[in-house]
Structure formats: structure tokens, C-alpha cells
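Postdoc handover notes: sequence design on the structure in folder B. Input C-alpha cells:
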């Protein structure tokens, strides 16, 4: 399975590779909802889903931590 990838750019915008448009920023609430839904679906199917967080080197660490939470 392709992992779920949450990206954070230098401006602190979030992106999600499984979103309808992965090249458009996504707000934090939508990010939480989409990732939660996907994880629940995977769990119901009896499989595990990896979630990865990647960030620009210049991103404030607090924004990265928010994405991880």
C-alpha cells in the first residue's frame, strides 16, 4: 500500500497525497478528517497504513509536530 504522506511547506501549509488535489494546501481539520477516515478504512480491512510526515528544512518545528499529532 502507498503510505499516507503529510507534507509541510516553508509557509507552514499542509498537503496530503491522498487528497482530491494533492497539490493544493489543506487545512488542519480536513487533514485530520481525511487521515482518520483512511486509517479507519485500513483497520476495517485488517491492514496497517503507514503515515509519513515530510517537511521543508526551513519549516518551524512546531508546525511539523502539529502535523505529526
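Designed sequence:
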Amino acid at each position: 500500500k502507498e503510505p499516507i504522506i503529510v507534507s509541510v511547506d516553508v509557509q507552514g501549509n499542509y498537503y496530503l497525497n491522498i487528497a482530491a488535489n494533492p497539490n493544493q494546501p489543506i487545512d488542519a481539520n480536513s487533514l485530520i478528517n481525511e487521515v482518520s477516515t483512511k486509517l479507519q478504512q485500513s483497520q476495517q480491512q485488517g491492514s496497517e497504513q503507514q503515515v509519513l510526515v515530510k517537511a521543508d528544512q526551513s519549516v518551524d518545528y512546531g508546525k511539523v509536530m502539529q502535523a505529526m499529532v
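Context for whoever picks this up: Helices lie at 28-44, 61-68. Don't rerun without checking with the PI first.
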